[in-house]
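User: Fold both of these, please.

Assistant: Here is the first one.
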Amino acid sequence: MIVSEGDDRDLFDWVQEQNLVRQYDFLANCIVIGLKQRHTALDKYTLWALNHIAVANISQFGGRFREEPIYVGNHIPPHFREVPELMDRFISTVHENWFNWSPTELAAYGLWRLNWIHPFIEGNGRTARATCYYLMCVRSGTLLPGRRIVPERIRDDRAGYEAGLQAADRAWDQGHLDFSVLEEYLARLLEAQLSDDGLPPLPPQSN
């Protein structure tokens, strides 16, 4: 049961919006579990589930790593045969640096690295943003307050998001791990979210 954007844009947008609501509900559950289990809770199965929910009824390959090439603007993600090992390394890096990096540093790494690997056929951005927020909350030790959460604010400020990803890409191409531009961007968004604490919640918005 697949809805195509080209065949019925209104229905496609509605399905995508409903998926986003469900993904946020599931993400909240994951955060609660992660607050109990700490850094050991994040695994590939959680990422598969976040992606599956994000693309349900709009992609037949949700919740599994891609097995074909994919292109994203000027970025050419790694060969699909490299994806499983790269994802293992990604999760290991998160675990190993849990206490070395701040919440926004950990979130920035997760946001950039998942976008760089692009492990799924579709829904990579939505999965990366959800993972980013999971890391931010669990590393902070709380389900962060605020009526409009960081992943939603990212969609409101795509220019800063893309600039941060591109800066991290350039550093990686030069042999450096440097996601500081993206971390500063996320820190600003988190500050804005926390300043909204106590206001009534707003409904999530799809891309």
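And the second sequence with its predicted structure:
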Amino acid sequence: MRISRTFACVLLVAPMLGAQTLDDVFLRLDKAAPGFKSMTADIQRVVHTAVINDDSTESGTMKLRRQKAHETQMLIEFTVPDPKSIALVDATVSVYYPKIKTVQIYDVGDKRNLIDQFLLLGFGATSAELKQAYDITAAGSETIGGQATSHIQLTPKSKEVLTRLKKADLWLSDASGMPVRQKFLTSASGDYMVVTYSNVKHNPVLTDGALKLNYPKGVQIQHPQH
């Protein structure tokens, strides 16, 4: 499903945690979660297709606002190698392809819960929310982009989610408790997606307009089946 590829809208082998226990990680999550309202970041997304051993890489920016649980809005604007914008509002995902002057609009309906499973991974989620949705194990610690991080692995408890997400890896900043990197294993054959965040700004003011998908008049509007 194309939406899952977009959001699944989500790395390295690390030594075992020494003094860093799961309880330590959960404490940082629970300290960060109550104050989380919004974020902006530069992102890089790598999608690996196992059957042909191919990686495709995109980079751009992300804006996210979480006013309350399950009310997350997001705008991703990829600029390299090809421009593309993706917006999530309520139960609608919209994707704008400026080169072909086309907007594709998906009504995700009850699959919004599936998307929320991805958005839960570190952005304002408490340890209780994560433990309710995933079985969690400690996987190690490492430095990413100059930041010390704790690495945890998450396996979805929901059979529905498992059809789309086999396992997730999450690297949380030891300083902020926020994600620095996420990895989503999306198929049993080994397909995965890695998202890395940099230049993260916590709780900037994001208006509705800042999260709106902007495109010129006259573009083609499509409503693909999924």
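Helices lie at 2-7, 22-32, 112-119, 127-133, 159-162.
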